[in-house]
TrEMBL record, chains A, B:
Domain of life: Bacteria
Full protein name: DNA-binding transcriptional regulator, ArsR family
Keyword terms of this UniProt record: DNA-binding, Transcription, Transcription regulation
PROSITE patterns found in the cross-reference section: HTH_ARSR_2
Matching InterPro entries: ArsR-like_HTH, HTH_ArsR_DNA-bd_dom, HTH_MetalResp_TranReg, WH-like_DNA-bd_sf, WH_DNA-bd_sf
Organism: Arenibacter troitsensis
Domain HTH arsR-type residue range list: 16-114
DNA sequence: TTTGTATATCGCAATATTACGATTAATATT
DNA sequence: AATATTAATCGTAATATTGCGATATACAAA
């Protein structure tokens, strides 16, 4: 099969969308997996750094949790610091609020004007 | 490689998470792609059914748009109705509000108690 | 220094997702 | 009836994601 354009199969064509649209999608994607939702909820619940117990808490293998944490860290939603042999994680409040603002702006689009024509 | 448990590689282990966590993840996932963000924003902007012009508006091939619309319809976020040769789409307001409530509950977790210990 | 503990990384397997060309189906139009 | 238009579906290609075992790394304890 031939593609004349720069189409890389299986890869989202982010370049045709606005920065805002890509940003919304990136944030949504990161909590588009139940394990990452569970991790974030656990961090919120404890109100403090969580050191080590995430693996036993979530119920996935240690490398899998580590990978999910990496993705959350990459977007800046969590922070981590080494504490002896273990690593402690917590919510990055600034980034969380920034994300919340961006997602809310998307979710809170004025729905009242939507005609129910379909 | 052998797996004693019921691990199906590449598939999220949804069964170990709560319904709420899986629901949050499902909704987030669906707007975790810029094309679907763009489609939803366009539907909001027009305040009415959008018949046909989505392909030219978004800039992806017709089958690709059709596939994204299918995913949005599957979750119930949009409704479609046949209008002559074309199909008209609009936001499903009830489902949108339901989704908004669920995502907001997740985003609005009390961040004030988070100790900045990391 | 050796041993233990906790996390990260590597490598792999398998499914999921994204995208599009070709085709099909359904309805208008001529 | 033949043709045009529009959207859905099929098939395929290629990357992305998910998950875990094995290993590496880093630090603490004995």
């Amino acid at each position: 099969m031939r593609y004349t354009n720069e189409i890389i199969m299986g890869l989202a064509k982010t370049e045709i969308f606005s920065d805002q649209q890509n940003e919304i999608a990136s944030f949504a994607k990161v909590f588009g997996h139940p394990a990452r939702v569970a991790i974030l909820q656990h961090l919120f619940k404890l109100n403090t750094c969580v050191c080590g117990d995430l693996v036993s808490e979530i119920g996935l293998a240690q490398p899998t949790i580590s990978q999910h944490l990496k993705e959350l860290k990459l977007l800046g939603l969590i922070k981590g610091s080494v504490e002896g042999t273990s690593v402690c994680y917590c919510i990055n409040t600034e980034k969380w609020l920034e994300m919340k603002e961006i997602i809310n702006q998307f979710l809170n689009q004025d729905i009242s004007k939507q005609g129910d024509c379909c």
